[in-house]
Design goal:
Length: 253
Protein backbone atom coordinates (compact mmCIF):
# COMPACT_ATOMS: atom_id res chain seq x y z
CA UNK A 1 0.00 0.00 0.00
CA UNK A 2 2.77 2.42 0.95
CA UNK A 3 4.76 1.80 -2.18
CA UNK A 4 1.62 2.00 -4.32
CA UNK A 5 0.80 5.29 -2.70
CA UNK A 6 4.31 6.67 -3.21
CA UNK A 7 4.13 5.85 -6.90
CA UNK A 8 0.72 7.41 -7.02
CA UNK A 9 1.82 10.63 -5.30
CA UNK A 10 4.96 10.73 -7.41
CA UNK A 11 2.84 10.59 -10.54
CA UNK A 12 1.09 13.76 -9.45
CA UNK A 13 3.86 15.79 -7.87
CA UNK A 14 7.12 14.71 -9.46
CA UNK A 15 8.72 13.73 -6.18
CA UNK A 16 12.26 13.99 -7.59
CA UNK A 17 11.90 17.74 -7.81
CA UNK A 18 11.30 18.28 -4.09
CA UNK A 19 14.00 18.43 -1.42
CA UNK A 20 14.64 15.35 0.70
CA UNK A 21 11.76 14.82 3.11
CA UNK A 22 10.77 11.86 5.21
CA UNK A 23 8.47 9.54 3.30
CA UNK A 24 5.71 10.46 5.73
CA UNK A 25 5.79 14.17 5.00
CA UNK A 26 5.88 13.43 1.28
CA UNK A 27 2.79 11.27 1.66
CA UNK A 28 1.04 13.94 3.73
CA UNK A 29 1.61 16.68 1.14
CA UNK A 30 -1.74 17.47 -0.43
CA UNK A 31 -2.15 16.68 -4.10
CA UNK A 32 -5.41 17.04 -6.02
CA UNK A 33 -7.03 13.82 -7.19
CA UNK A 34 -10.36 15.44 -8.11
CA UNK A 35 -11.03 19.18 -7.90
CA UNK A 36 -14.81 19.33 -7.38
CA UNK A 37 -15.53 20.68 -10.86
CA UNK A 38 -16.80 17.34 -12.17
CA UNK A 39 -18.01 14.02 -10.79
CA UNK A 40 -15.06 11.67 -11.22
CA UNK A 41 -14.06 8.19 -10.22
CA UNK A 42 -10.92 6.09 -10.27
CA UNK A 43 -8.95 3.43 -8.47
CA UNK A 44 -6.23 3.49 -5.83
CA UNK A 45 -4.94 -0.01 -5.20
CA UNK A 46 -8.00 -2.23 -4.78
CA UNK A 47 -10.22 0.69 -3.85
CA UNK A 48 -12.59 2.64 -6.08
CA UNK A 49 -13.09 6.33 -5.31
CA UNK A 50 -15.94 8.55 -6.45
CA UNK A 51 -15.81 12.29 -5.89
CA UNK A 52 -18.14 15.12 -6.79
CA UNK A 53 -16.34 17.30 -4.23
CA UNK A 54 -12.63 17.84 -3.71
CA UNK A 55 -10.49 14.75 -3.07
CA UNK A 56 -6.80 15.07 -2.31
CA UNK A 57 -4.05 12.69 -1.28
CA UNK A 58 -2.26 13.96 1.82
CA UNK A 59 -3.87 15.71 4.77
CA UNK A 60 -1.71 18.67 5.81
CA UNK A 61 -3.98 21.68 6.43
CA UNK A 62 -2.31 24.96 7.41
CA UNK A 63 0.95 23.14 8.10
CA UNK A 64 -0.54 20.57 10.46
CA UNK A 65 -2.08 17.14 10.19
CA UNK A 66 -5.02 16.93 12.56
CA UNK A 67 -5.61 13.21 12.19
CA UNK A 68 -3.37 10.29 13.06
CA UNK A 69 -3.96 8.70 9.65
CA UNK A 70 -0.70 7.69 7.90
CA UNK A 71 -1.89 6.94 4.37
CA UNK A 72 -4.25 9.89 4.31
CA UNK A 73 -6.77 11.40 1.87
CA UNK A 74 -8.54 14.71 2.43
CA UNK A 75 -12.18 15.24 1.45
CA UNK A 76 -14.00 18.57 1.07
CA UNK A 77 -17.61 19.34 0.12
CA UNK A 78 -18.81 22.90 -0.49
CA UNK A 79 -21.68 24.51 1.46
CA UNK A 80 -23.35 25.49 -1.84
CA UNK A 81 -26.34 23.12 -2.13
CA UNK A 82 -26.27 23.39 -5.94
CA UNK A 83 -22.56 22.76 -6.43
CA UNK A 84 -20.22 19.75 -6.41
CA UNK A 85 -23.16 17.46 -7.17
CA UNK A 86 -23.14 13.77 -8.04
CA UNK A 87 -24.42 14.12 -11.61
CA UNK A 88 -26.02 10.64 -11.49
CA UNK A 89 -28.68 11.91 -9.06
CA UNK A 90 -29.55 15.48 -10.04
CA UNK A 91 -33.22 14.80 -9.22
CA UNK A 92 -32.32 14.74 -5.50
CA UNK A 93 -29.11 16.80 -5.28
CA UNK A 94 -26.32 15.16 -3.32
CA UNK A 95 -22.59 15.46 -2.85
CA UNK A 96 -20.30 12.46 -2.67
CA UNK A 97 -16.67 11.79 -1.75
CA UNK A 98 -16.34 8.07 -1.08
CA UNK A 99 -14.00 5.11 -1.30
CA UNK A 100 -15.35 1.61 -1.73
CA UNK A 101 -13.91 -1.84 -1.23
CA UNK A 102 -14.25 -4.35 -4.09
CA UNK A 103 -17.68 -5.78 -4.93
CA UNK A 104 -18.36 -9.20 -3.39
CA UNK A 105 -20.85 -11.97 -4.12
CA UNK A 106 -23.38 -13.15 -1.56
CA UNK A 107 -21.88 -15.64 0.86
CA UNK A 108 -18.29 -14.35 0.60
CA UNK A 109 -16.92 -13.18 3.95
CA UNK A 110 -15.32 -9.76 4.23
CA UNK A 111 -13.34 -8.09 6.99
CA UNK A 112 -12.05 -4.54 6.59
CA UNK A 113 -10.66 -1.60 8.52
CA UNK A 114 -10.16 2.11 7.76
CA UNK A 115 -9.87 5.39 9.64
CA UNK A 116 -11.79 8.64 9.43
CA UNK A 117 -11.32 12.04 11.02
CA UNK A 118 -14.49 14.11 10.59
CA UNK A 119 -13.80 17.80 11.21
CA UNK A 120 -15.96 19.19 14.00
CA UNK A 121 -16.71 22.16 11.73
CA UNK A 122 -18.80 19.76 9.62
CA UNK A 123 -22.42 20.44 10.51
CA UNK A 124 -25.43 18.17 10.10
CA UNK A 125 -29.08 18.52 9.09
CA UNK A 126 -32.13 16.33 9.31
CA UNK A 127 -31.48 14.60 5.97
CA UNK A 128 -29.14 11.66 5.36
CA UNK A 129 -25.40 12.06 5.48
CA UNK A 130 -23.65 8.68 5.17
CA UNK A 131 -20.16 8.17 6.61
CA UNK A 132 -20.27 4.41 5.86
CA UNK A 133 -22.53 2.28 3.69
CA UNK A 134 -23.01 -1.47 3.45
CA UNK A 135 -24.39 -1.22 -0.07
CA UNK A 136 -26.58 -3.76 -1.87
CA UNK A 137 -25.91 -3.86 -5.61
CA UNK A 138 -29.16 -5.73 -6.40
CA UNK A 139 -31.15 -3.24 -4.30
CA UNK A 140 -29.07 -0.33 -5.67
CA UNK A 141 -29.47 1.07 -2.19
CA UNK A 142 -27.74 1.05 1.18
CA UNK A 143 -28.57 -1.82 3.55
CA UNK A 144 -26.87 -0.51 6.71
CA UNK A 145 -25.24 2.90 7.15
CA UNK A 146 -23.44 5.11 9.65
CA UNK A 147 -24.90 8.61 9.48
CA UNK A 148 -24.24 12.05 10.89
CA UNK A 149 -27.68 13.59 11.41
CA UNK A 150 -29.12 16.25 13.72
CA UNK A 151 -25.95 16.43 15.81
CA UNK A 152 -25.85 12.66 16.32
CA UNK A 153 -23.89 9.73 14.98
CA UNK A 154 -26.30 6.89 14.24
CA UNK A 155 -26.63 3.48 12.65
CA UNK A 156 -29.41 3.06 10.11
CA UNK A 157 -30.72 -0.30 8.94
CA UNK A 158 -32.79 -0.33 5.74
CA UNK A 159 -33.41 -4.11 5.87
CA UNK A 160 -34.67 -4.50 9.44
CA UNK A 161 -35.94 -0.94 9.48
CA UNK A 162 -36.60 1.97 7.15
CA UNK A 163 -33.47 3.95 7.88
CA UNK A 164 -35.30 5.48 10.84
CA UNK A 165 -34.72 5.11 14.56
CA UNK A 166 -35.62 1.40 14.67
CA UNK A 167 -33.28 -1.42 13.67
CA UNK A 168 -35.87 -4.20 13.71
CA UNK A 169 -37.17 -4.55 17.25
CA UNK A 170 -34.34 -2.56 18.85
CA UNK A 171 -33.50 1.13 18.79
CA UNK A 172 -30.64 1.75 16.37
CA UNK A 173 -27.37 2.60 18.14
CA UNK A 174 -26.77 6.34 18.37
CA UNK A 175 -24.38 8.69 20.17
CA UNK A 176 -23.64 12.39 20.25
CA UNK A 177 -21.63 13.40 17.19
CA UNK A 178 -19.17 15.15 19.52
CA UNK A 179 -18.00 11.65 20.52
CA UNK A 180 -16.94 11.08 16.92
CA UNK A 181 -15.91 14.32 15.25
CA UNK A 182 -12.64 16.11 15.96
CA UNK A 183 -10.79 12.86 16.59
CA UNK A 184 -9.46 9.97 14.53
CA UNK A 185 -11.77 6.95 14.58
CA UNK A 186 -10.91 3.40 13.55
CA UNK A 187 -13.70 1.47 11.80
CA UNK A 188 -13.72 -2.32 11.54
CA UNK A 189 -16.41 -4.29 9.76
CA UNK A 190 -16.84 -7.93 8.92
CA UNK A 191 -19.73 -9.87 7.48
CA UNK A 192 -21.25 -11.35 4.37
CA UNK A 193 -23.74 -10.18 1.78
CA UNK A 194 -26.80 -12.19 0.82
CA UNK A 195 -29.98 -13.61 2.37
CA UNK A 196 -27.93 -15.50 4.96
CA UNK A 197 -25.68 -12.57 5.63
CA UNK A 198 -24.31 -10.66 8.58
CA UNK A 199 -22.59 -7.48 9.67
CA UNK A 200 -20.44 -6.84 12.71
CA UNK A 201 -19.29 -3.22 12.83
CA UNK A 202 -17.32 -1.26 15.42
CA UNK A 203 -16.11 2.33 15.52
CA UNK A 204 -13.45 3.14 18.11
CA UNK A 205 -11.48 6.20 19.10
CA UNK A 206 -8.09 5.49 17.50
CA UNK A 207 -6.12 7.07 20.34
CA UNK A 208 -7.97 5.75 23.41
CA UNK A 209 -9.40 2.56 21.87
CA UNK A 210 -12.78 3.37 23.43
CA UNK A 211 -15.85 2.25 21.52
CA UNK A 212 -17.87 5.07 19.98
CA UNK A 213 -20.64 3.04 18.33
CA UNK A 214 -21.19 -0.55 17.20
CA UNK A 215 -23.81 -2.71 15.50
CA UNK A 216 -24.02 -6.44 14.86
CA UNK A 217 -26.76 -8.34 13.12
CA UNK A 218 -27.27 -11.73 11.47
CA UNK A 219 -29.76 -12.28 8.68
CA UNK A 220 -30.54 -10.70 5.34
CA UNK A 221 -27.79 -8.47 3.98
CA UNK A 222 -29.32 -7.92 0.58
CA UNK A 223 -30.24 -10.37 -2.16
CA UNK A 224 -26.86 -10.67 -3.83
CA UNK A 225 -23.63 -8.73 -4.44
CA UNK A 226 -22.56 -5.78 -2.38
CA UNK A 227 -19.69 -3.62 -1.22
CA UNK A 228 -18.67 -1.44 1.72
CA UNK A 229 -18.06 2.29 1.20
CA UNK A 230 -16.89 5.11 3.46
CA UNK A 231 -16.31 8.86 3.29
CA UNK A 232 -18.92 11.61 3.07
CA UNK A 233 -22.13 11.31 1.03
CA UNK A 234 -24.98 13.68 1.78
CA UNK A 235 -28.22 15.06 0.44
CA UNK A 236 -27.62 18.80 0.05
CA UNK A 237 -29.80 21.43 1.74
CA UNK A 238 -29.81 25.22 1.98
CA UNK A 239 -27.86 26.44 4.99
CA UNK A 240 -25.59 23.41 5.28
CA UNK A 241 -21.94 23.83 6.27
CA UNK A 242 -18.91 22.82 4.28
CA UNK A 243 -17.85 19.27 5.09
CA UNK A 244 -14.25 18.19 5.70
CA UNK A 245 -12.83 14.80 6.53
CA UNK A 246 -9.60 12.85 6.37
CA UNK A 247 -9.78 9.12 5.62
CA UNK A 248 -7.28 6.36 4.95
CA UNK A 249 -5.26 3.47 6.41
CA UNK A 250 -7.69 0.98 4.89
CA UNK A 251 -6.85 -2.69 4.90
CA UNK A 252 -8.36 -6.10 4.36
CA UNK A 253 -8.10 -8.07 7.59
C1 LIG B 1 -5.92 -6.51 -3.64
O1 LIG B 1 -6.71 -7.63 -3.92
C2 LIG B 1 -5.95 -8.79 -4.15
C3 LIG B 1 -6.88 -9.88 -4.62
O2 LIG B 1 -8.02 -9.94 -3.80
C4 LIG B 1 -5.22 -9.17 -2.86
O3 LIG B 1 -4.44 -10.30 -3.06
C5 LIG B 1 -4.34 -8.01 -2.44
O4 LIG B 1 -3.79 -8.27 -1.18
C6 LIG B 1 -5.14 -6.73 -2.36
N1 LIG B 1 -4.24 -5.61 -2.15
C7 LIG B 1 -4.45 -4.71 -1.21
C8 LIG B 1 -3.45 -3.61 -1.16
O5 LIG B 1 -5.39 -4.76 -0.44
C1 LIG C 1 -23.66 27.76 -6.21
O1 LIG C 1 -23.33 26.87 -7.27
C2 LIG C 1 -24.08 27.11 -8.44
C3 LIG C 1 -23.78 25.98 -9.40
O2 LIG C 1 -22.39 25.88 -9.62
C4 LIG C 1 -23.71 28.48 -8.98
O3 LIG C 1 -24.45 28.76 -10.15
C5 LIG C 1 -23.99 29.52 -7.92
O4 LIG C 1 -23.53 30.79 -8.35
C6 LIG C 1 -23.30 29.17 -6.61
N1 LIG C 1 -23.72 30.10 -5.58
C7 LIG C 1 -22.85 30.78 -4.86
C8 LIG C 1 -23.46 31.66 -3.80
O5 LIG C 1 -21.64 30.72 -5.04
C1 LIG D 1 -24.19 16.82 22.05
O1 LIG D 1 -23.35 17.37 23.03
C2 LIG D 1 -23.25 18.80 22.90
C3 LIG D 1 -22.16 19.27 23.85
O2 LIG D 1 -22.27 18.62 25.08
C4 LIG D 1 -24.62 19.41 23.20
O3 LIG D 1 -24.56 20.80 23.07
C5 LIG D 1 -25.61 18.85 22.18
O4 LIG D 1 -26.92 19.30 22.49
C6 LIG D 1 -25.60 17.33 22.20
N1 LIG D 1 -26.37 16.88 21.02
C7 LIG D 1 -27.28 15.93 21.10
C8 LIG D 1 -27.94 15.54 19.80
O5 LIG D 1 -27.58 15.37 22.13
C1 LIG E 1 -27.02 -20.02 6.68
O1 LIG E 1 -25.83 -20.14 7.43
C2 LIG E 1 -25.91 -21.15 8.43
C3 LIG E 1 -24.67 -21.07 9.26
O2 LIG E 1 -23.53 -20.84 8.49
C4 LIG E 1 -26.11 -22.50 7.75
O3 LIG E 1 -26.25 -23.50 8.74
C5 LIG E 1 -27.39 -22.45 6.89
O4 LIG E 1 -27.52 -23.63 6.16
C6 LIG E 1 -27.35 -21.29 5.92
N1 LIG E 1 -28.62 -21.15 5.25
C7 LIG E 1 -28.69 -20.94 3.95
C8 LIG E 1 -30.08 -20.78 3.41
O5 LIG E 1 -27.71 -20.84 3.22
C1 LIG F 1 -24.31 -14.03 14.54
O1 LIG F 1 -23.97 -15.39 14.37
C2 LIG F 1 -22.68 -15.73 14.86
C3 LIG F 1 -22.39 -17.16 14.46
O2 LIG F 1 -23.46 -18.00 14.81
C4 LIG F 1 -22.65 -15.49 16.37
O3 LIG F 1 -21.37 -15.78 16.88
C5 LIG F 1 -22.98 -14.04 16.65
O4 LIG F 1 -23.06 -13.82 18.04
C6 LIG F 1 -24.30 -13.65 16.02
N1 LIG F 1 -24.49 -12.22 16.15
C7 LIG F 1 -25.64 -11.66 16.50
C8 LIG F 1 -25.66 -10.19 16.59
O5 LIG F 1 -26.63 -12.34 16.76
Amino acid sequence: MWSLCLIFVAAFTGINAVPALSSESVLQRRTTISDGNAFNQGNIGNMTWQASGVLESGCIIGGVTLSTISDCYHMFLTNNASAELDTNHLDSPRQRDEFHFPQLSAGIEFSYTWKQYLYSSTGTGTTWFHLMQVFGVVEDNPLVTLDAVSGALRIKDYVRGTGGSLCGTIDCPTTNLTNYDGTTATHTISGMFGPNGSVSYEVRNTVTGDEIISYAVNGSMGAGDGYVKFGMYRLTFDGMTTANAAVGDWATL
